Here is the input.
Amino acid sequence: MANRVKVLLDCDPGHDDAFAIIVASKFAEILGVTTVAGNAPLDLTTKNARVILDLCGASTVQLHSGAGRPLVAEPIHAAYIHGESGMDGANFAAPSRDRDGIDAVHFIIDTARANPGVWLVPTGPLTNIALALRVAPDLVENISGISLMGGGRFGNRTAMAEFNIWCDPEAAAAVFDSGAKIVMSGLHLTHQIMATP
Here is the structure.
């Protein structure tokens, strides 16, 4: 793993985030996973993250739950896409173990400070990342950047709004205004990706 990029995943699994965890487990060094409410409520996104980590043979990866709601708005979920569980359509075994903690924000901060150059990779609403930047603005100096899945040339929640940004626009604004290097993979890109065996 010495040559693998170090990443800290922040996600709301969801089928799309499950795919991100699977890919990261093969091609990156995952320093930890944090969860946020988004595609489903926080308890379900956290359970789903552990299940996917188990499937990838990464059950020892630290998992910390975070924000259960956006900074300002009421919680919004995507059951219309991912089902009530966030992972409807698949029958998974129960998770091997519970989460490791409930303070995703400080886990993000501590992990970034202990691993300068780590990439933050949020694939859900940006609430945890925004809160971490609020608590520790110097976080920007410890990371290589933020590679996020959000936004796009067209929307999936409204004509112009993509779900991850629409779910917590105040958090997204804080992240985009943070001064961190941002690599944005928008909805239009995720519609072009093909998976092969």
